[in-house]
Amino acid sequence: MDPAFTLLTLGLLAAATAAMSLRHLVACALCLVAVFLAGAGLFLHLGAEFLAFAQVLVYVGAISILIVFALLLTRTRGAESAPLCARPRGWGLAVAGGVTGLLLAAVGTARLPAGAAPPRPAVPVRELGLELMSRQVPALLVVGLLLTAALIGAVVLALREPPAGGEKEPPA
Amino acid sequence: MVDLLEHAPLTVGRWIVQRVPEAWQPVAGALLGAAVLVGVFAGLFALTTWLERKGLARMQNRPGPNRVGPAGLLQPAADGLKMLFKEDLRPFAAERWVHTLAPLLKVVPVVCALAVIPFGRHLVALDLDAGLVFFFAMGSVTEVALFMAGWGSRNKYSLLGAMRAIAQLISYEVPLALAALTAVLVAGSLSLPAIVDSQAGWYPGGLARWHVFTPWGLAGVVLFFTAATAKANRAPFDLPEGESEIIAGHLVEYSGFKYALFFLGEYLLLFGYSAVGITLFLGGWRAPVAWLEWIPSYAWFALKLLACIAGFIWLRGTVPRLRADQLMHFAWKFLLPLGLAANFAAVLWQATAGWTFAGATLVRWALAAGLVLVPYQVLGRALLGTAAAGPRRYRFAE
After folding, report:
1. Smallest Cβ distance to A61: which of B129, B137, B188?
2. Partner of B179 for a Cys bridge, out of A161, B164, B224, B386, CB 3.0 to 4.6 A?
3. How far is B128 from chain A (nearest CA, A)?
4. CB neighbours of B109 closer than 8 A, spacing ≥ 6?
């Protein structure tokens, strides 16, 4: 086994386990950051350079910060909750078993090339961009539309109604 | 002679690497590169603290550090030793691991980010195809470090300070990326050496074809360095460490060398942003005029970097700190639209590159400059409101 792959996978699994079992929600979010970083390392190991950097930029730099901000700004108390895996166990086991079965079935039915696969050359960013802008345009547009809708929804949710009887805030 | 100087760092490096056994040579090469990077930039950090204190002192009519060594040159060493010997306090309630790891997570990604910058014609430690994305990705990891510092200290003030700092960093990330995008658009590559190559050649007068000598490049460089000032937490955007307002924010519970590490990370980030700004717009390691090309490329890069640092010190000595709401308005209402305008100007510049009729350059300049300057004027007047209409009044101690 490749030592880099082993280390990254073990780190990812450990961080994921910690994220599910720690008591403090913010600590769980920080473990999630470690999971994202290990995932980026795996991408890098597979030769997907751009994907790895985009993962760090978007997930570590933005999404994890969004998660902790949402945690801290919305729930002033109750952040110290029971571990996430202590919810109704039957449901959790059923879902986890289903997902595992699906993944195992996918891996089992996949046709892997016999013998060692030839090392594929790394895809240059230029080709990635051209592909996104030509064949994958519908997907790109749909994702953009979805994100815009989510943004507008967030603004609508966050927008506070002006107090009745005037625009002005009451004097403190 | 020129060639010899140009290759000198590589030759020395190769000579050192050949001293180790054959099997270990790749590892030794990588280690050597990393060691040089860390050593040079840590030294630059020490030099910059001295330059900054001296420069600020000159602006404020006082001598500055002048006791330790000639002209106070050994002051950084004294400061470093003092920081090492200070007691390393950790609050009783603090999260042990988070509190300890935060300063490291602030420094290490920034050092990694420095690896992709071409410091000379042959001096790039890590030539990545997506180098610019790597740089920004590593820069964004420091936001997590800030949050860990603020939350791990278990102190309300440090948490509030961290939230303010992260809000600032995320807000200014957008104009920074937009400003960098202008150069990427025209160069057609995310690789930093390729962007330097796109600035090769000379204008008829012997002036280099740097991106800064185009209307969109001029707008881009101003936007980039403004946003970089905020991202590197420098005056006038140094609210996160506002020592007189929010008692140094997320740094409240740090002491000793961990405290110093935060500042090391901040200064390294400043050097990194300056270096990327130089690479994107100011020609990287290229000479400004044709007859000065005999100076080695890394010397040009160092000169430009020092000039940028001097500019940042000058700025810090000149302008007062912004208010938190002014900071946010400036990013979202002013820099962001201008960044979009600069990108449109860059697209226009590329689209009209084929024009060959007489005076085409003038027309292109007018079109692209108008695309940036008109929004600048309109936005500035609209945001300032009535304050922009009347004559400017300066109020000092009234």
Report:
1. B137
2. B224
3. 9
4. B138, B139, B141, B142, B145
